[in-house]
């Protein structure tokens, strides 16, 4: 999510929910948690006071930069033996697969689906010890995960990654 709100023009809350395939009511809870963690803030759109735009905070941009750096380190170790065009081809295919999984089954975690298909373990261990935020494309979107303030579990169309 942080990646999506760190682009040029901050997206509206509704557009962000649509882009990330997250139910709009669930998006509200996620944004509440991300605001509480000082990762994003919602601001009134100057053109329409009913609309809220979602902006990354300075802390949110720092967290996103750290997550991207961890992803790059892990990708470097995993894909280091491949030439640059092959690495880019792999990244593109992996991203298309994650999108296809999410579109065909919005409640399925793409990472869990890959582990199931490849026979990978579900013990939570990650490559290189980087943790969940370091190795998944979803971390580029979410940055901070789906919350963690102890409130009720959110469900919806998104993956929560």
Assembly classification? single chain
Any guess at the CATH architecture?
A: Orthogonal Bundle
Which homologous superfamily in CATH is the superfamily?
Winged helix-like DNA-binding domain superfamily/Winged helix DNA-binding domain
The helix tally amounts to: 8
CATH class: Mainly Alpha
Distance from first to last alpha carbon: 9 Å
**Helix/strand order:** HHHEEHHHHH
Strand % is: 5-15%
The biggest sheet amounts to:
2 strands, antiparallel
Q: Evaluate the radius of gyration.
A: 16 Å
Average pLDDT for all residues: 77
The total of beta strands comes to 2
Under CATH, the topology can be stated as Arc Repressor Mutant, subunit A
Q: What is the approximate shape?
A: globular
Structural class comes to: mainly alpha
- Ranges where pLDDT stays below 50 over 5 or more residues in a row are 122-161
In which order are the strands of the major sheet placed? 1-2
Domain module tally: 1
| Portion in helices | 40-55%
């Amino acid at each position: 999510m942080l990646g999506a709100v760190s682009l040029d023009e901050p997206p509206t809350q509704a557009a962000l929910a649509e882009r990330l395939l997250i139910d709009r009511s669930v998006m509200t809870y996620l944004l509440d948690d991300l605001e509480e963690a000082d990762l994003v803030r919602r601001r009134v759109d100057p053109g329409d006071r009913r609309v809220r735009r979602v902006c990354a905070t300075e802390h949110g941009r720092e967290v996103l930069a750290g997550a991207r750096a961890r992803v790059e380190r892990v990708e470097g170790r995993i894909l280091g033996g491949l030439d640059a065009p092959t690495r880019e081809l792999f990244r593109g295919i992996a991203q298309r697969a994650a999108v296809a999984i999410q579109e065909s089954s919005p409640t399925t975690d793409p990472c869990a689906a890959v582990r199931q298909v490849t026979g990978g373990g579900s013990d939570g261990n990650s490559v290189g010890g980087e943790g969940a935020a370091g190795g998944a494309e979803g971390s580029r979107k979410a940055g901070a995960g789906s919350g963690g303030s102890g409130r009720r579990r959110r469900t919806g169309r998104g993956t929560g990654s």
